[in-house]
Design a protein that fits this description.
Radius of gyration: 15 Å
Distance between the termini: 21 Å
Number of strands: 0
Order of helices and strands: HHHH
Number of domains: 1
Shape: globular
Largest sheet: none
Structural class: mainly alpha
Oligomer: single chain
Number of helices: 4
Length: about 110
Amino acid sequence: MERKKTPLKAIRLYCFFCMNDQATLIRECDDKECFFFHYRMGKNESNPRVSALKQIRKYCYACADNSSKRINECPHKNCSLWIYRFGKNPARAGIGSKNPVFARKI
């Protein structure tokens, strides 16, 4: 059974893509301007209050020339971040909703 990809795992996969699948290069990365610098090792130790989803949204917004419309129309479906481009985790849809129409049945 395939495990679900979390936002942190998606960021880690993106880092592998960026660094040509070299874990050593990811560890040694010194690009502190990168949106994912603090998340590259699979966790955020610098500021745990900033979620991985928010960082993905910021990255996608910048990638789409600061246009929400272009995020909607993003053609890069093979990007590991694509499913999280709206800053939401689709695997958690309906969880915590006060509206019973959207609440997930347990």
